[in-house]
Amino acid sequence: MKVRDLMSENVKCADPNQSLVEVAQILASSNIGSVPVCQGQQLTGMVTDRDILVRAIAEGKDPQTTKVSEVMTKDVHCVSPDTDIHQASDLMAENQIRRLPVIENNQLVGVLAIGDIAVQSIHVDEAGEALSSISEKVYQ
Fold it and tell me: Does 128 have pLDDT greater than 50?
């Protein structure tokens, strides 16, 4: 099975110049925890609700004026639509990430989430192992 078979399409994106408040509203209205940051359809980063909290709010930055480009993750792991699901799952586990942008011809075409893998009965164990690796305790 390939990533294209499970990925979400028609993904909402944030613009790098949007304020954190605007991006938080996208997250809230879509009931998601992260959003790709794009210029046009070209991926420039990812921002999560945690990025907003830890890299901005906790540091006293004003969410009305702070741009998403100031807190987003710029070095983003990606896959192509033709990547094997097992490879994508391994990449998620190795890098402790829950969502992978899907890129084709240098353009964002979708996002693969750990939940997309988990709902497929043939990949439940694999998704569980990946989530277990992603969710390892930082403090012991």
Answer: yes
Contacts of 6 (CB under 8 A, 6+ apart): 85, 112, 116, 117, 120
**Residue among 37, 57, 52, 40 nearest 99 (CA):** 37
Question: Is the backbone of residue 105 left (phi > 0), alpha (psi -120 to 50) or beta?
Answer: left
**Residue 126 in domain:** yes
- So what's the pLDDT on residue 130? 52
Report pTM. 0.82
Residues ≥6 apart with Cβ < 8 Å to 82: 2, 3, 4
Provide the number of structural domains found in the chain: 1
Cβ within 8 Å of residue 24, ≥6 positions away: 49, 52, 63
Which domain does 7 fall in, by range?
3-134
